[in-house]
């Protein structure tokens, strides 16, 4: 029995993603990031991905190929703020679906790690604590006029 089966299969993942995108549609930072006005297709892709990841049908890869999630997120500005907003929407979704505590913790742990790994943009160097940009902040900063 896979995790997918244990939590209730397709229906459960669909419910999680439905609540998640309901929350995304209300978020002033996340909503404009989505290329399509209709969030339905994005919801389908996320559902298929999660279903496949947790041991359900592999429809995601049949339709979309290898997930390569970090690469697919490169066009979007995933910074700590959007990551936290994304996670807040997911937290609301998991709370509404009410999995068992163990299933909830397992899924949440994965989602948190995945969301942290998806960050591809750091806050601007000027905003970093102490004003001292790290190497990473420097290389992704839009402000390249800094001299010292
Ligand atoms: C950390 C904050 C994140 C933000 C702001 C974000 C935002 C986005 C955006 C704007 C899209 C494009 C919509 C679409 O065409 O589907 C997208 C796609 C997608 N995201 Fe995220 N995402 C985040 C994290 C994650 C995480 C943690 C996962 C997986 C656990 C994930 C899974 C996906 C998937 C599967 C797609 C569709 C990929 C495809 O097949 O084209 N995202 N995301």
From TrEMBL:
Listed InterPro entries: GlbO/GLB3-like (IPR044203), Globin-like_sf (IPR009050), Globin/Proto (IPR012292), Globin_bac-like_CS (IPR019795), Hemoglobin_trunc (IPR001486)
Region (Disordered): 125-148
Keywords: Heme, Iron, Metal-binding, Transport
Keyword S-adenosyl-L-methionine set for record: no
Cross-referenced SUPFAM superfamilies: Globin-like
Recorded family membership: Belongs to the truncated hemoglobin family. Group II subfamily.
This protein's name: Globin
Species for this entry: Microbacterium aerolatum
């Amino acid at each position: 029995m896979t995790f997918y089966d244990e939590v209730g299969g397709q229906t459960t993942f669909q419910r999680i993603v439905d609540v998640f995108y309901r929350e995304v549609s209300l978020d002033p930072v996340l909503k404009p990031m989505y290329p399509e006005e209709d969030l339905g297709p994005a919801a389908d892709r996320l559902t298929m991905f999660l279903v496949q990841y947790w041991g359900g049908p592999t429809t995601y890869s049949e339709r979309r190929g290898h997930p390569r999630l970090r690469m697919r997120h490169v066009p979007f500005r995933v910074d700590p703020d959007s990551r936290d907003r994304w996670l807040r929407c997911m937290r609301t979704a998991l709370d509404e679906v009410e999995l068992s505590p163990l299933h909830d913790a397992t899924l949440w742990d994965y989602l948190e790690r995945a969301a942290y790994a998806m960050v591809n943009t750091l806050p601007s160097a000027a905003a970093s604590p102490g004003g001292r940009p790290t190497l990473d902040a420097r290389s992704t900063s839009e402000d390249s006029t800094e001299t010292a």
